[in-house]
Amino acid sequence: MTIEMQFSPEVAKARANASPVVALESTIITHGMPYPQNVQTARKVETVVRDGGATPATIAVLNGQLHIGLTDAQLEQLGQATEVAKLSRADFAACLATGGTGATTVAATMIAAHLAGIHVFATGGIGGVHRGAELSFDISADLHELAQTPVTVVAAGPKAILDVPKTLEVLETLGVPVITFKQNDIPAFWSCSSGLASPLRMDSAAEIAQAQIIRTQMGLPGGQLVANPIPAAAEIPRQTLVPIIEQALREADEQAISAKSVTPFLLQRIFELTGGESLTANIALVMNNARLATDIACEFNKLAD
Ligand code: PSU
Ligand code: MN
């Protein structure tokens, strides 16, 4: 018995033709960006994937149905909705069972992508080890998902709101390959460099696809995290963000923000404190990640069978 999935018309066509598909998450739409930029960005990202020769599959749960690919109307509806659950591994099945509507985080999108036979997924940033995790135990389920579900996730590196060295330590412990694209330093989401060396570097989409295939051939579970630096012209220098991030973190602490609300709260405050500049950078890096994920999906397609 397998789970029932609703494929959008274009994804159904891509599956029938065995052509490359790129998964996209929906939490970035509902909890990561304000309306209407969220819907506009989601559409632009889908266009980038199509222009690169693959089919976009934005993943979400609508009224208890698992959707692999959304129509334009569904995307708009999700972008405007206010009471949408933020789904991860723990609550994904419960949402389907109760007929709920939920946006998928990196963890939940990986699960759905794998169920749908999609190997590559593009997003902005993944969850990680939060600062103060030694007391709060706040470590994103995204990290454990990367360790067990065979999907290559293209992101722009861990966000500086996280504890980046601890995030890298946990990924290493879990056996997750962290591959930076075309540079030696791990990028830091809004900035090109975190100042920390990347465990791995690759310079071509073909190598990245090949590495995932070899992991699977070796019987190693799990995926790969590809850290793709934001284009230099769009970056916000690290030093500019330090005081802003400190302030957002302080406010989260003062207001006792916890659990699933932490990441959306911090993103929203940083958006406000940068006068919208963080969002402009966020949009640029997501599009850049969609481009690379599309190339990787095309390489997977060549290497398959
Ligand atoms: N980082 C972003 N934008 C986002 C997220 C992370 O820049 O929208 C979302 C992703 O869906 C990610 C989730 O999987 O937040 C992580 O949430 P948490 O830290 O609660 O695990
Ligand atoms: Mn968390």
Q: Your description of this structure?
A:
With 305 residues, the chain is of the alpha/beta class. It has one domain (5-304): Indigoidine synthase fold. Helix content is 48%, strand content 14%. The chain contains 13 helices and 11 strands. Strands 1, 2, 3, 4, 5, 6, 7, 8, 9, 10 and 11 form an 11-stranded mixed β-sheet that branches. Strand 3 and strand 4 (65-68) form a beta hairpin. The radius of gyration is 18 Å and the shape is globular. The model has no long low-confidence stretch (mean pLDDT 96).
Could you give the count of β-strands?
11
CATH class category label:
Alpha Beta
CATH topology: Indigoidine synthase fold
Number of DSSP helical runs: 13
Distinct small molecules bound, one entry per kind: pseudouridine-5'-monophosphate, manganese (II) ion
Rg estimate, integer Å: 18 Å
Order of helices and strands: EHEHHEEHEHEHEHHEHEEHEHHH
- Termini gap: 25 Å
Alpha-beta content class: alpha/beta
Number of domains: 1
| CATH-defined superfamily | Indigoidine synthase domain
